[in-house]
Design brief:
mainly beta; five-stranded antiparallel beta sheet; 5 helices; globular
Length: 486
């Protein structure tokens, strides 16, 4: 497994599966399957609608009627890919190796157990890591690809269940594969690089969506795809592009370039939306818990904060030096963690629009960061990081415990501006630059200007430092940092 991008572990349990609060459609696996009691009861449906309207969760593309699924008399029927991967004669797939007792293992799988999926060179493996499983080391199914290396994958937490798993994979050949594990069927998206020719470095389902997912291509483009739409040759609908002289520039950035808006009237085929944010590789991205913002880190060393519902770039933060490799949000959405080639973990405040602290402790690149949701409240936070130095570090963070470096405190006592506030909120900034979006399809970019703040590099003498509370090293690299066990 690649130590830079840990595999994800997913708990498959019928009672613990996620339900959507974004729509009231009745989704059935087949025509013979009955609806659940809360769906057939009119009183329960009314209560569900009331609760949903009281705390409405934003939905990407909800203002575009062309993205609303057609609702029949039986609701919205969940679709599956059409091509059987075991019987496929596609040159894209070299070989498929299902376990000889695959059907029995799936049938006897404990619903409280764990399924795992791993990208290993040209292979994609489905494993059962449930306790008391004597066949853990043996894959349920192993897929070998002819030329493609699967670089990333994600499981849809909204549609997962005891008999259904929607998985998307991004490949080095720019192909994207939608794979339904239980039926062993698949479909290819961006086939033969018809939409974007660069490799897919990161991929995730959009929160609250059964069909839409976001893929980060190596050319610095973020593209929203629909797993059920066909592909078509894509010509950017926006008029502007990143200029060639900006390649390699780290001082002046352009706003988010909307090559296709989610509000476009052309939604017959993929992509649903396309945004260019850099000429460098996108290493990682993460959705905020309130599903309103997107944090994106790039190889040229910048953290981008995007209001992706409105397709606007709001902030750009630079690293101390080198590229950013990973990013994540605190459970309450107030803070953002980044790690990268400067060997530092950095803490950023969304509301204050500034760097809160740097966290030294690693001796090499920081490859993954994650908050511990069981150790976080409205004031105290626990997070961890792993790096290529084969070290696991744990950190405890509280805003009140942060102190500025002594050098700054001594200098400011003799300064007339020593009592000037260092905190600025999202409505006020010291370096606001106004840009006009290039998309002629987004209302905000036509009727007005979107504000974007490009922040300078913060000096180490002006930034608080946070020491780790635990350091653990081992001879083999750590590869799992996505979730804590408690």
């Amino acid at each position: 497994m690649n130590p830079r991008k840990p595999p994800h572990l997913y708990k498959i349990a019928d009672t613990g599966s996620t339900r959507s609060n974004l729509a009231t459609y009745s989704i059935r696996e087949s025509e013979k399957e009955s609806r659940s009691s809360h769906e057939t009861s009119s009183d329960g449906l009314a209560a569900h609608l009331a609760n949903s309207s009281a705390a409405k969760t934003p939905v990407f593309g909800e203002d575009n009627a062309l993205l609303t699924p057609a609702i029949g008399k039986d609701g919205v029927k969940r679709k599956k890919p059409k091509t059987n991967i075991v019987k496929s004669n596609s040159s894209f797939i070299s070989r498929v190796m299902p376990h000889e007792a695959m059907a029995k293992r799936i049938q006897e799988h404990n619903l409280e157990g764990l399924f795992a999926f791993a990208n290993v060179n040209r292979a994609f493996q489905w494993l059962d890591l449930s306790p008391n499983n004597d066949t853990k080391a043996q894959h349920i199914i192993k897929i070998l690809f002819t030329k493609a290396h699967m670089l990333c994958h994600d499981v849809n937490s909204l549609t997962k269940g005891p008999n259904h798993l929607d998985i998307i994979m991004g490949a080095s050949t720019a192909d994207i594969m939608w794979f339904e594990a239980f039926s062993q069927k698949y479909a290819r998206i961006n086939k033969n690089a018809v939409i974007n020719p660069s490799a897919v470095y990161q991929i995730k389902w959009l929160p609250g969506s059964e069909n839409l997912f976001l893929a980060a291509h190596m050319d610095g483009t973020l593209i929203v795809y629909d797993k059920e739409r066909d592909d078509a040759i894509f010509v950017p609908e926006g008029s502007n592009h990143l200029s060639s002289h900006s390649q390699g520039s780290e001082k002046h950035h352009r706003p988010l370039l909307v090559h296709k808006s989610v509000n476009s009237r052309n939604q017959k085929s993929n992509p649903v939306a396309s945004w260019k944010i850099s000429n460098h590789r996108i290493n990682d991205f993460a959705f905020s818990p309130d599903i309103r913002h997107l944090a994106v880190v790039t190889e040229d060393g910048y953290l981008h904060i995007i209001d992706y519902l409105n397709e606007q770039l709001t902030d750009i933060y630079p690293s101390y030096y080198g590229g950013f490799l990973c990013v994540c949000w605190s459970p309450d959405g107030k803070y953002i963690l980044t790690g990268g080639q400067d060997d530092l973990v950095s803490i950023w405040s969304l509301a204050e629009r500034r760097l809160i602290a740097r966290c030294p402790g690693h001796n090499s690149w920081v490859s993954c960061v994650a908050f511990d949701p069981w150790r976080c409240d409205d004031r105290n936070y626990r997070f961890g990081s792993v790096g290529e130095d084969r070290r696991l570090l744990l950190w405890d963070f509280n805003v009140a415990m942060l102190h500025r470096p002594k050098a700054l405190a001594v200098r400011q006592r003799n300064s007339i501006s020593s009592h000037a506030p260092l905190i600025r909120n999202r409505a006020e900034s010291q370096a606001t630059t106004r840009f006009r979006s290039n998309s002629n399809l987004t209302a905000e970019s036509v009727d007005g200007e979107a504000s974007m703040v490009e922040h300078p590099v913060e000096s180490r003498t002006r930034t608080a430092e946070l020491p780790p509370v635990m350091v653990r090293a081992q001879t083999q690299p750590y590869v799992l940092c996505e979730k804590f066990a408690g």
